[in-house]
Design a protein that fits this description.
five-stranded mixed beta sheet; 5 helices; 35% helix; globular
């Protein structure tokens, strides 16, 4: 099988990757680009651990072939705060205690980022629905939902300042 060349933007930078056509985006991000915040969980798109923001939408990167990323804009956790300063969602997760083992956290944060980019003031039900594709084995989800609502509030306050 001949390799393909994929041109896309990853974390706000243009990237060109030569890879096998049957390689998953998850593997390209982790193995070729060394973006290890993207975790492999279930390998079938059910757990959300490998979630990235793909053209503005949260997607499970284990279900995306590398070739599908041609021309795409992809953001991983590393691209959320490139200067190292946590953004509102990251701060809210820390302040709310929504982080336990941390394995699911990158996918949760990226899903929350995508939600808040589209809806600055979500209801609790909207947060629950948006986060429903991300599984966590350590929490009861209450603190995660609280964190997303807090992040929305923090962003609104920052926008007014």
């Amino acid at each position: 099988m001949n390799n393909i060349t994929v041109h896309c933007t990853v974390n706000h930078k243009p990237v060109t990757v030569e890879t096998a056509p049957n390689k998953r985006l998850l593997d390209v991000l982790r193995e070729d680009l060394h973006l290890t915040s993207v975790k492999e969980g279930c390998s079938e798109g059910e757990c959300g651990a490998c979630t990235v923001i793909f053209n503005g939408e949260p997607v499970t990167s284990c279900c995306v072939l590398a070739g599908q990323a041609e021309g795409a804009d992809i953001v991983t956790l590393e691209g959320i705060s490139p200067d190292g300063t946590p953004d509102a969602v990251q701060r809210a997760f820390m302040e709310s205690g929504a982080v336990q083992c941390g394995f699911c956290t990158p996918g949760m944060i990226l899903t929350a980022e995508a939600l808040l980019a589209k809806n600055a003031d979500p209801t609790e039900e909207e947060v629950k629905l948006a986060m429903s594709g991300n599984l966590c084995r350590c929490t009861g989800y209450t603190k995660i939902i609280e964190a997303v609502l807090l992040a929305a509030k923090m962003r609104r306050e920052e926008a007014r300042a």
